[in-house]
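[agent] plan:
  1. take the single chain provided in the ticket
  2. run structure prediction with default settings
  3. attach structure tokens to the ticket
  4. add a short note for the reviewer (M.T.)
[agent] executing step 1
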Amino acid sequence: MPEAAAAVEVLKPGAFSTLQDLGRRGFQHLGVSVSGVMDEVAHRLANAAVGNPPEVATLEITLIGPVLRFCSSAVIACFGADLSASLNGKALAPGRAVSVPAGATLRFGARRAGLRAYLAVRGGFALERVLGSASTLVRAGLGGHAGRPLAAGDVLTLAAPLGPAPRRAARALRAQQALLDAAANPAPLRVVLGSEWPQFTPAAQAAWLGDAWRIGAQSDRMGYRLEGPVLERRVRADMLSETVTFGTVQVPPDGRPIVLMADRQSTGGYPRIAQVATADLPRLAQRAPGEMLRFETIDVEAAQRLLLERARLFADLAPAPRALRSLQSP
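[agent] step 2 finished; step 3 output follows
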């Protein structure tokens, strides 16, 4: 009997499950958000574990995971949050590739740690790229599966793998462990002081760096609203809209800071008190509403060194040249 079509059926969608890749870049001047994964480290690790290139879309699963039935055999990996995944009722080992037989059901249960899990399927999902990306931007109805979160009854077609899965080299496993260790670091999030830092009062500056901040309930992929002291400015002058990016911390007139996230707008007119270091954004993406955050300052050069070190670890995740040749062979 021939195997069923390579597809995954959504039996239950979960709280907010969207297909995301590394983002839709090059269109911010037109007002189009970059979007993309919230936790780039977990996304890249999941893809690397199944032998996909990093640009292949993964399923970003938020808090409450879906129930998925595999219509064909597949190889999957799940990284990021521990949402008690199980395959046909048996606990799924996190952080490694697992073979899934045709007809198997993947479920997610109670949240143990983190907020967002990333599910990669070997070969990836067969998705149309919109403006160069398959990422779902829900507010604009772009990308992913019909431009929206998954719904019960959806069927996600799987793309064919490029070739046999490459064996993971020791350096890739070391890079994986280093990235996982960095993601689990409980230290304060590191920030570079923003362009408008001098506009804030000494009390506001001390509160930003000295107090704990609660992630508010009105937080999502566009921005994390932080609850804590009101941050007062020395000067109340209006600002022209300026460039913002993933991790920019804006302070609107009510004095309550907002950390802009993956689905952020391209410009903003509120003063920027700080910028979360790019290397620490995956840690922030795994923090849930109600949890507390602290911040500490680093300079631009230190933030760049962190990013370069992470880039070297990402490079170590890539298949060795010999494995890449096997992927490209007919």
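[agent] step 4 note for reviewer: Residues 7-165 form one domain.
[agent] ticket updated
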